[in-house]
Design brief:
Elements (H helix, E strand, L loop, with lengths): L1 H18 L13 E3 L10 E5 L8 E9 L5 E9 L7
Parallel strand pairs: 1-4
Antiparallel strand pairs: 2-3, 3-4
Length: 88
Amino acid sequence: MKVALWAFAVCGISAAAMADQPPAAPAQATEVVEHYQYGMKLDVAQVLAQDRVPYVCGTVPVHMTYLDSQHQRHVMEYLVMGNGCNNG
């Protein structure tokens, strides 16, 4: 019984300590997402990350994070066809 009360007290103290901290902001919330338009001139020097194409039938937005030739970080959103369509 003492162990259960001790564990409950530790959890309560931890929760109270965490309540005083501001919530962490999502990493992508601070970055501006650019939307690709057909014919845009892109300056992509290095691709840092790309979303996987989801298993759905239809067009879906995905993101690519990259560095340009001036070493500026960009996040580009563009549409791709999902992998979930049957071709037969």
